[in-house]
Amino acid sequence: MTQHDLFSQLPALDRLLHDATFAPLLTKYGHSRLVETLRLMLTEARSVIRKEGALPDWAQAWAVEAETRLHREDTSALRPVFNLTGTVLHTNLGRAIQADAAVEAVSQAMRAPVTVEYDLDGAGRGHRDSAIARLLCELTGAEDACIVNNNAAAVLLMLAACASGEEVIVSRGELVEIGGAFRIPDVMRQAGCILQEVGTTNRTHLKDYRSAINEKTALLMKVHTSNYQIAGFTKAIDEAELAELGNEYNIPVVVDLGSGSLVDLTQYGLPAEPMPQRLIGAGVSLVSFSGDKLLGGPQAGIIVGKRALIERLQSHPLKRALRVDKMTLAALEATLRLYRHPETLRERLPTLRLLTRTAQECTALAQRLMAALMPHYPEFTFRVEPCLSQIGSGSLPVDRLPAAALTLAPLDGRGGTLEALAQKWRSLPVPVIGRITDGRLWLDMRCLEDETGLLEMLLK
Ligand SMILES: *Cc1c(COP(=O)(O)O)cnc(C)c1O
Fold it and tell me: Which of 12, 52, 63, 221 is deepest in the core (most CB within 10 A)?
């Protein structure tokens, strides 16, 4: 067929729009979007004819192709997925999933005007963190609190407001990189502080801090080295010792905790994590931690500590740039309220619920899935295997949580390949995200809560 013949086979836009098969698309997506899509398809078809001397494959069914394209445009960039990676707080998957109470609070705050900075008693306008600050003080024993966009912002604000143009003493063993270009020395520079490194990579003593103190010292800082651990001949001083030293010289002590937990995780059989309230109790001036790590709330940076210092943070111009919106405040408040009821926390806070699932529960879940899926995937072998999940988000890299996974591998000669299966499952309506290790696809059961939903989708 000549190019001319092919061009003459292309439908006219008007004819397509009046064709009955396009009527549902017209209703669903509207006239202008449909016209725009069809125009693009026509342009594309002409270019394919010129380059390849043939019509594109989809030219057999214009309506189907238009529907696919319009639908694809409408799928959100934030797709819900099944997180079967085994990492509970997965940064690339949005970290903590929110408690129902937080979801409801956010939804309410979105639908109506809310008293973010409006004092109904007429007793004068409080700052937008006041209500949450009261909760945080109750939970941590601190005098006041400040909320910003994330913990990186919290560190920046603490440094800029308390030590700009002055010296901050930090141990060499704590000059960490958190990921995403967050490095303590760089943040210091951004905040206009002069970094005064003390000690060595593996050992830092109290006398190292003491001998570095001079009239330019504005802060003593500790950074929780959450994402790595040095083993062997090591020494770091604890926060209480540093707080005492700071007290002696009247220099504030700040701690970047990263993933602080407001409950003692060991009571659930989990590895110990530092708790903000313990640091406050030990006399630390300011402690910062993330809202969406172990706390299990929305992305936020939380700073608790001494009133005079928090006031400095609240009145610093950067606070205006780093403050959070009403949705974050609503979710954070609802999440913190759950901590007032320790008896129901594990059941209501998804992060804690997932972290405390036992290996037995995960095994039982994997076995049920295996029994249901096996008959439908004859090209694969299935196994239920023990595995180790991770908390994620830089917490406790060496501590793993015993769990179980459903693992699949292709049966030789049956044509199925692992990569193809993983790809197919990633392109489902709710993508299934596992990991491929040692020639098997691993689906860690720790974070699977919607068992029925997953099965329905995989068996369709
Ligand atoms: C995670 C972490 C940060 C960064 O916190 P975000 O909330 O991700 O901005 C900073 N410091 C430490 C020690 C951390 O663990």
Answer: 221
Ligand 1 midpoint to CA 388 (Å) = 23
pLDDT tens by residue, 241-289: 999 999 999 999 999 998 889 999 999 999 888 999 999 999 999 999 9
DSSP string, 338-388: HTT-HHHHHHH-HHHHHHT--HHHHHHHHHHHHHHHGGG-TTEEEEEEEEE
Distance 152 CA to ligand 1 centre (A): 6
DSSP strand pairing (253-258 vs 217-223)? parallel
Nearest to 174 by CA among 155, 146, 147: 155
Backbone angles phi, psi at 6, to 5 degrees: -65, -45
| CA 56/CA 49 separation, integer angstroms | 8
List Cα–Cα distances, 224 to 148, 171, 191, 443, in angstroms. 19, 11, 19, 31
- Write the pLDDT tens digit of every residue in 191-230: 999 999 999 888 889 999 999 999 999 999 999 886 667 7
Residue ID of nearest Cα to ligand 1 atom 1: 258
Residues whose beta carbon lies within 6 Å of some atom of ligand 1: 150-152, 155, 178, 182, 223-224, 226, 256, 258-259, 290, 301, 394
169 CA → ligand 1 middle, Å: 19
β 440-444/435-437 pair status: antiparallel
Ligand 1: centre distance to CA 214 (Å): 29
3-state DSSP of 119-139 = CCCCCCCCCCCHHHHHHHHHH
